[in-house]
Amino acid sequence: MATPVSQAWTSTSEPNRSTGALGRIAQHVTNLRSSDFLECPATRTPRTPQERLDASWTEPARGTRREPKPGAAAAEEQGKTVLYLAYGSNLCNETFRGMRGIRPISQVNVMVPELRLTFDLPGIPYREPCFANSARRDPAEHRCSTGPLSHTNYHKDRWRKGMVGCVYEVTPSDYAHIIATEGGGASYHDILVTCHVLPDSDTVPDSPSTPAFKAHTLFAPAIKDTSTPDLCTTDRFTRPDPSYAQPSARYLKLIADGASELSLPAEYQDYLHQIRPYTITTKRQAIGATLFLSIWGPFVLLFFTITKMFQDDRGRSPKWLVLLGEMIFTSMWLNYDAVWKGSFGDGERTDDDGDDEKNVGM
């Protein structure tokens, strides 16, 4: 099992209004909006030159670059860059340039026929039920079956074309920082995928017509499907139905804002806007969310502190720390299934059946 540890507990929709120690914990883990946001619109970043894209075919298959050390060793970084594919919240200036402080050298919008967008990475019940992820895609079948594609009324599984995103050209040290902020290698694997530059159009082509190039991306393998063993692997904790949970409105807004800032095709932006977010609709759920955070927040904050201490110069955590994160998040979800869901209501999917008198804000 691997979960987006650092992202999950710093990604919630509104600051908790509790007082005292719990209030400080909640404020720390929920405050994403940075007052030091860098005003660096995506449109001002140069387009990645074709020569750099062509050079991607000779690069290592996995994240073998090491972060340069200060001083003379910094000269080794000159001329060396990493092409990184973003498809989730890192599309957004607020997250990528603001919160994470990444300054891309160049960028280009792309489609990736071998991947598809999913929202199946478990997050935090009641706050961030799931996060964006990528899965292997069979272009001939338009999808790889990694779980039931039910609950289509929530729209998150309706995209059938290849992955749409942005490839940023970044320094090796910035790429190490990206890995560190995405769970230190516990949440995702670094893989190379084949990308194609998106043409200027309102729609995403079914098949690419532009030259291919390679880019690194962070990939969390999903449940194994015995019918397509080459496309899916078992490598992380998953929910029984990966299509069940809804992403939060805050998280969806980051992705949709990024798609707008990058001028991704209107067809894809329309899809993002149609995804229905998870919403707390009853007082019982609101109480459960507060209590859940008060119990599990301290454990995860302690894990964050240890993670910052032990990440290496590539942003990766040691194996024992990855196992600790697995234990915390597995235990959290088992606790939710056994106790919280039945006592306080659904923390993954909007409850549309709540009585009006129980509705939050009523």
Low-confidence stretches: 1-40, 62-77, 143-151, 225-234, 354-359
**Count of extended strands:** 7
Strand content: 15-25%
Helix- and strand-based class? Answer: alpha+beta
Order of helices and strands: HHHEHEEEEHEEHHHH
CATH architecture identity: Roll
The total domain count is: 1
What percent of the residues sit in helical stretches (DSSP H or I)? 25-40%
Rough outline: globular
User: Main β-sheet: number of strands, strand sense, barrel status?
Assistant: 5 strands, antiparallel
Count up the helices: 9
Kindly report the CATH topology.
Hypothetical upf0131 protein ytfp
Separation, N- and C-terminal Cα atoms: 39 Å
Compute the average pLDDT: 77
Name of the CATH first level: Alpha Beta
CATH superfamily: Gamma-glutamyl cyclotransferase-like
Strand order of the largest sheet: 1-5-2-6-7
Radius of gyration: 20 Å
Active site: 182 (proton acceptor)
GO molecular function: gamma-glutamylcyclotransferase activity
EC number: 4.3.2.9
Protein name: gamma-glutamylcyclotransferase
